[in-house]
Design goal:
The structure is a single chain. The chain is about 50% helix and about 20% strand. It is built from 12 helices and 21 strands. α3 packs parallel to α5 and α11 packs across α12.
Length: about 650
Amino acid sequence: MSFLEPSEYIVSTGNIESSLTIEGTTQFSNSQKLSFLNQGKVKTVNVKVGDEVKKGQVLATMTTDDLDKDVEQQKIDIQDQKNEIQDLLDGYNLDLELLKAQAEYDNLLLKQKNLEQSNELEIEDAIHKLKDAEKEYNDALKDYQELLSGSESGNKDLALSSTIRDRKIKMEDAVLGIRTAYFDIQDMLEWYDQLMFITDKYSGVESIYIGAKDVQKKNEAREGFNAIRNDLTKLQNYYDTLKKIEPLDLTNEQILEVYSFMRDLGQKILNWGEACYDMFQESIVSEGSLSQGDIDSYSKKALGFQDAGISYMTKTYSSMVETLSKLDEDTSLEDTKLKMEKLKTAWDKMKIEAQLLTTNQDKEKAELQEKIDQALRNINKIKKGESLDESKITAAKNRLKQLQNTLDNLYKKYDDYKLIANFDGVITQMDLQVGDSIESSSKSWSEKYIYVESNNILELSLSVEQVDIIKLKVWMPVDVYLDAYDGNIYHGTVTEINTVPSEGGMGASYPVTVTFYKNDPEEMILAGMGGNAKIYLEKFENLILIPNQAISRMNGKEVVKLLENGQRVDREIETWTSDESQTEVLSGLSVGDTIKEMYMTQEGFSSVGLEDSEDAMMMYGGMGGMWGWMGWWMRGGMGGARRWRW
């Protein structure tokens, strides 16, 4: 066996990347429905069905008249502010400042005149309200006197029949409204039940295409259905209880309790409608089973559920509150007398408020007069030629900066009025043409769209353990390796991190999605293929690096063999970050130093004619050299990363 000259390595700088490798399964991510989110009219449509498009290509635009006006006005404001700053920097212009001060003074005088006019109007309005309050009191006094007369004569129906009749009708309508709501909600549930076959009332097979893209949305809709069905039973019980009570015996509180329940039920209907809409949008079109027209029809029905829920939450409830507030709860002689006394108190209170109004107006006039006096003092100050306050220049520059920031934000908004392709693809569907009106409410914008598809974009679905999920961020770079295409590397990014853990298993794991592109459009990458994602967590750049095999352990210290003046010498070093093949050196080495000994892997032994570590011991001088070789192995030899130092 011949002794070999150890290999050399010149110390240099490089990078170390920290990564995480996780197994996953492929799935398609090859379509996107693009829709305008802003309100307005479609200005241009630059594509048609069948057109190929490139990433970043503008497919359609909306009118931007209002935004254009805002931008132009902002430019004018910026230029005006620049002119103001320039005037300040050029020096103090006495005539200009005097004109500004005079304009401020004149403006305050105009405000004073307008204030006098508005005060007069407020006084007139207060007088009008006082007269109305006086009339209400006199009417109540008259009612009381009539009721008193009817009570003394024994003809109670003559005095009370009108009030009682009105209350009876309103209470009957309130109870009827509960039953009407019951049947309307029951119709919604039966339509959904007949479509989805939730209960045993209808027989059939549930469509596997409805909500197939997102089972969670489908489950949310089903849960909403069951919750509303339970509340509908409660609503029926409410109705059965109230209809047994005479209308005149019903109280406002009893009616309001039911309508409050209906308001809360309206919120559930709204949420259920949204869940149904999302579920229908996640459906898969299937020829002969589920057409796009069916999906659009079902989605429109779900929007109707949302409108009904909003109506129960707002219009139905508030209308009943207003109706009950106008009803006289009691019609007794004593109650009528109490009403009269309350109106008398309200009238007296309004008289006091009218007096306070006069006092507040006097205070406001005094404050304005003080501003006028101050403006006049400013005019006199300027006439004396006093210097300009430097703070005005600083304030003017700050205003200019704010105006420029606003303009930059306005420019960014132009992208909100464009439909832009996010990847290379083909236009497969569209419902959009020049002149279409886009509404921003009630999700009607979703009815106007351009559909782009590309089979070059795929996803790798991962399940990440809790100890690793906290390391990941969206848009981290990823290299994807597929079992079916050994040796190929596909580049992508982390596009979604689900913070809701997956079900099952002993510990929490979280779904993560990696999106990547094909290398060749002709590659047959199918859903369900296995692979690995190498996610790059961090990158350390411009480090002094040496191979792991160059590091030895002697007397508890890390050392390398350097070539100095033709001799091999030991140099103690301090290390830090490492990966499978290289280690960062914090101290002890400089770029350009020559390392004379390298500790080899088994493949390295074979390449130089050595069979095993025993030959290496002989080559490196017995056990001392062997300790160097063992130090290399523990630091990551044989392809492993460094785990510890010893």
